[in-house]
Amino acid sequence: NWNCWRLQDATCAWFTLSSLLDILTCSTLSAARSQHSLFFLSHNLSSSSSHTYTYDPVNPCVLMECVPPCSDRPGFGEETPGVPLSSGPPTPLRAQTFSSFSPSKSYSRQSSSSDTELSLTPKTGMGSGGSAGKEAGPLKVFLRQQTQSALEQREYPFFTLTAFPPGFLLHVGGVVSARSVKLLDRIHNPDEPETRDAWWEEIRQEIKSHAKALGCHAVVGYSESTSICEEVCILSASGTAAILSSRFMQDGPLDVEHRLSRQPLCVFSTGSERVEGDMGSSASLGFEEVVSPGCGFCHIPYDELNIPFPAQLTYCYCCRRYKVPDVLFTTIDLPTEANVTGKGCLIQARLCRTKKKAQGEGNATAISNLLPFLEYELHTQLMNKLKLRGMNALFGLRIQISVGETMLLGLASATGVYLTALPSPGGIQITGKTPSDITYEQHISNMQKKINDTITKNKELYEINPPEVVEEIIGSPIPEPRQRSRLFRSHSESSDEVSELDLSHGKKDAFVLEIDDTDAVEDIHALLTDFSIPAGFYSCNTEIMPGIQNWTSAIQMFTSVRVFRLNTNLTNQGLNKIFSDLCENLLKSLYFKLRSMVPCCLCHLNFTVAIPEDELIQVAVTAVAMSFDKEQTLENGKQSGEKTLIKAITDEQLQFSLELNAETSSPNPLSSPKGLSDVGSHPSARASSVDYSSFADRCSSWIEQLKLKAHTIRRGSVKTTSSMEKASPLPEGRSRSLRSNRSYSGSSVAVVKMTPLSFIPGAKIIKYLGIINMFFIRETTSLREEGGVSGFLHTFIAEVFAMVRAHVAALGGNAVVSYSMKECVFMENPNKNQAQCLINVSGDAVIFVRESELELTSVQPQSATTQTSNGGEGT
Amino acid sequence: MSVELDVFVGNTTIMDKEVYQLWLNGYTVNDAVKFRIEGGVMEECEASAEVLLSDTMDQYRTFQMCERLLHHPAKLANQLLFQIPPDRQAMLIERYYAFDDSFVREVLGKKLSKGTKKDLDDVSLKTGITLKSCRRQFDNFKRVFKVVEELKGPLVENIRQHFLLPDQLAGDYAAIVFFANNRFETGKKKLLYLTFQDFAFCAGQLINNWTVGAVDNMMEDMDVDLDKEFLQDLKDLKILITDKDLLDQHKSLVCTALRGKTNVFNEMEANFKNLSRGLVNIAAKLINAKDVRDFFIDIVEKFIEPCRSDKWTSIDVNLYLTHYTNSVHILDTFKYHAVWTRYMGVIKSCILRMYHD
Question: Residue B67: which residues within 8 A CB-CB, separation 6 or more?
Fold first, then answer.
């Protein structure tokens, strides 16, 4: 009795839609985790002197999204040779992936215009096109144009990746997002994708234009999502507007540059001063402005004189040459080369808004009208919480809007950090509206004091002690005593607040909170009573925490799900508080449960909210707790951290060596007994013999393969990876080390680690075995007997984990990286003693080896690394 | 407003030793939360009662899901559902099979039947151990009993292998199984002063010396039953008390050896015949199953009580028994030396253990 499949319209897309799409979606997201690899692919390719390289940069997305799933299929390329890449889909595959709703006549109410301004992160800063351009000379302009044109040939210059190799991200403009409310029941033939395609097309165009408005030609960290309730559907897309390096973008044989661009890679892999190498290569060419990589991406990409919104600009606190905004919001991971002061922390904005029950068009209108306010308030909360922590930038920003019959739910999660390049955030000042009352004044000054204390305390907690610098504020400088930011507060209900939004972003003194009603007081209280994180814990929703590097091997991945039943007739404030408490309590529980791992950091804290029923709120969290070594962090934190990252990256490089080996060494690469280590040790020899044109061919043939496979899979019911992976045995040396690994545990069950991150601390991933993408549906007709809903779901999730582990173990792997729970739909009918649950999880199966073991047992991969770097330095 | 559903699942199953103990002790979730709050875990970790409740519920659920695996500990290492590190597994098993001495004293030697299980609420009332915990412990006894009953080979080793228990605990279970199988009476008032560990020690002695497995490892029999042949042979020892000469000779040998070495020599001399008669009669009667049940009672009545009333110290008892045992070998007409050694070795160590000053 799935009356519940009211979600059908949405989910069916998601189900019926071919597994091809599933696989691609999955691979896309997996790719987003194992990003480095992709870029190193192109890096490697370009660094060779081969002129036969025909990889089409116009469609990098296609390539990128297909690499991981194919990582272990030696025969792949040979099966459909000669298919040029350009014959692949003309648009990035994401386009198809998401165009899964079938419409006929589209009814839409777009709230985009208002969204635009809101989502552009009002305080993001201003453009540099003019001034910066002049400074760098015509060459840079030329370069930018060239890059731009390369990107603009693409229909959507969007990247779902969230981390990039150093030097790739030149400038970051800020978050761009677009939402659209659609009615699903107006679609006449839901099986055809045209209408859905058109909907997404609109949204992507909007994103593209937002990026342009910010002076950017690309969008990175891009993602799309939907929320559906009955017939209403909210389509959302967001990303970070950015300018990307042309080095990675240009097509054609750019031998000189590419050969040089190899330098940073090589230096990088040895772990020495990669930063200088990178600078050296670009500087010597004069192709790009000489910027320190630690702050370059903060420099504004847009025209200072023609900013799309009012903002305060200062000269960069690192290089003192370029302008930076006062606050930066992004959806990507913190670039590894960024200069960060102190540590970061998870910042969440939570909001609940009631809505009248309505049908069809009226409902869509009501939602459309609420959305801008919702988004604005979320933004306000984020801003305030950021300032309260004394930080100035957000990474990994993810805003989820869920729609229910009687409410809208908004949850924004991000990782706050203090970017050294950006100015120190001002404090928060509260003012009363009616200054006549003395006790009231007293109250306000008390609150002000509390806020100030909290900021001081937080700065200590997160070790934010930026070097003292003389303030240089461009635009209208704010007098010192008044230089405080304003505690944003909006009243979505009142219209004059909206106009205030426009006015207050001018160059007058903003960031003042007027306490004019009890709600405001409550809000500030909420702000202050956001519980402080227990000692020894850190949290972030990005891959890794800035400032923490010495990870130990102890990791604990977990999933927690809570469903909260609401009373009817709650006010907005009441609802807000409940929702906020729900999230806070969930976090508190996590800290408590994981207290034995202290000091540790909860990484990749990924919250998912849903409104499964009218009075239910469901929050699901998947994250990993990783212990770190406190002592060492203090001593040589930065260095070792870089090492870890470098290792992670070189790991993924190996993934490609493997690929290329499969292609070149022989039709059956497994006949080479040494496997990948063999390849690794002769990189130069290999590079010269590789025919890259066939590589591009292979990419497109992969796509064909995937499609084919998707068809097969669609017919069957199993959605897991094919048996092809299983066919490939491990290279000898590896299997031995793995076996020893297993026997060590003393039981017949192999230990399989799971993590939502792309790496395993203290370990080296030596082989990627393919994607794990599994759907599970579980139903019970004896709910009470199984321990109620909690018992049912607990067992189910435990079993899902077990099945994933078993699957990975069967493939010969010992870990899952980039694990994520994409879907968790839970429905119950306690009266009938029934419940149903659907879960979709995915990740990459890998084989890893502990670094300590690696040093002991095999030296081959290491010598390979050294050789690579030697070769690189030689050129 | 209420939390409808609240679960936490880790890839490595998180289990708190403290909560596990509370669960094993049979406390309800709410009681467990109270205990934890009193334990001060809240101050330690800045948690609230709500967090504690949620955590406790989660853990209880996990334990419940694990319980069926714990019934067959070997399965715990081979199951896929929970990823538990080996040391944790060992802890889970050890604690699950741990029992309260006060509880085991109540059921030791009783038939592990449904009838006994029904009386557990009385036991629970008497010992202050929750009924739930009593049932778990009882079921553990029964389960171990059922498994090893049919197995051949050394009892302790069997238990250790099948239930992955540490040596000490495996030994204790062997004692429980042995007692249950032979239905030794342990609940009589006179025996109440004895602890479970006293009995476990005695059981160990009996298992190691009086069972079939004790003399012949190749025998396809088990450690649970006493060696019938040996019991039969014990009848021959009667000669020590029936033959007047032998008895007097024995007495004089012992008294000569003891003279001047103890303060209670007179009592020893006076009681010799009584005590010797007691011990030999116990031996001669062991062939009857009913008398096997009264083995410990007999020892207490026939030997320990008379000695105690005469204020012997354990040293005195030790001295007496040593000479009592050894002197027999000097008797010319006595032929059953092997049986005597096998019998008295056990009797001596049991009495010494059971003789509390």
Answer: B96
Domain of residue B73: give its range.
17-97
Q: What is the pLDDT of residues A433-469, one digit of tens each?
A: 665 667 777 777 887 888 888 888 888 888 887 766 5
Is B134 inside any structural domain? Answer: yes
B240 and B335 in a single domain? The answer is: yes
| A642 contact partners, CB below 8 Å, separation of at least 6 | A271, A336, A549
B317 shares a domain with B237: yes
**Percent of chain A surpassing pLDDT 90:** 23
Q: Is B46 in CB contact (< 8 Å) with chain A?
A: yes
Tell me, letter by letter, the H, E, C secondary structure of B281-350.
Answer: HHHHHCCCHHHHHCHHHHHHHHHHHHHHHCCCCHHHHHHHHHHHHHHHCCCCCCCCHHHHHHHHHHHHHH
Mean pLDDT of chain A: 66
Q: What pLDDT is stored for residue A179 in this prediction?
A: 93
- Do B269 and B348 lie in one domain? The reply is yes
Does the pTM surpass 0.95? The reply is no
Domain boundary among B136, B158, B189: B189
Say whether residue A364 is in contact with chain B using an 8 A CB cutoff.
no
Please tell me whether residues B108 and B86 are part of one structural domain.
no
* Distance (Å, whole) CA A265 – CA A278: 8
Q: Is residue B334 part of a domain?
A: yes
Regarding whether B175 and B117 lie in a shared domain, the answer is yes
Task: Give chain A positions within 8 Å (CB) of B62.
Answer: 794
Q: At A414, which helix (H) or strand (E)? A: strand A407-419
Q: A682: Cβ–Cβ under 8 A, 6 or more apart, which residues?
A: A867
Look up residue B324 and give its amino acid. Answer: Y
A175 in the Ramachandran plot: left (φ > 0), alpha (ψ -120 to 50) or beta? beta
One domain, residues B89 and B107: no
For residue A787, give the nearest of B61, B81, B86 by CB distance.
B61
List of chain A residues whose C-beta atoms are within 8 Å of the C-beta of residue B52: 592
**A816 pLDDT band (50/70/90 cuts)?**
very high
pLDDT per residue over A99-152, tens digit each? 333 333 334 333 333 333 333 333 333 333 333 333 334 444 555 555 555 665
Listed in sequence order, the residues at least 6 apart from B104 whose beta carbon sits closer than 8 Å to its beta carbon are B137, B141, B176, B196
Three state DSSP letters for A263-302: HHHHHHHHCCCHHHHHHHHHHHHCCCCCCCCCCHHHCCCC
**Domain termination site, one of B97, B126, B152:** B97
- Sign of the four-CA dihedral A584, A588, A594, A598: positive
Helix %, strand %, coil % for chain A, to 5?
45, 25, 30
**Torsion on CA atoms B80, B81, B82, B86, rounded to nearest 10:** -20
User: Whole-angstrom Cα distance, residue A107 to residue A232?
Assistant: 10
Domain count, chain B: 3
Query: What pLDDT, on a 0 to 100 scale, did the predictor assign at position B221?
Result: 56
Instruction: With respect to residue B278, please indicate whether it lies within any of the assigned structural domains.
Output: yes
Cα–Cα distance between A748 and B331 in angstroms, integer?
A: 61
Half-sphere exposure of A283 (CA within 13 A, CB side): 11
Give pLDDT, residue A203: 93
Same domain, B279 and B237: yes
Q: Are residues B320 and B335 in the same domain?
A: yes
Whether B198 maps to a domain, the answer reads no
Query: Which residue in B has a C-alpha nearest to residue A625's C-alpha?
Result: B10
Q: What is the pLDDT of residue B217?
A: 57
In the A/B pair of chains, how many CB contacts fall below 8 A? 128
pLDDT in tens, A699-745: 555 556 555 555 554 444 333 333 343 334 444 333 333 333 333 33
Is B352 part of the contact surface with chain A (CB cutoff 8 Å)? no
* ipTM for this prediction: 0.87
Query: What six digits make up the tokens of A222?
Result: 């891009």
What are the tens digits of pLDDT across the range B8-41? 999 999 889 999 999 999 999 999 999 998 888 7
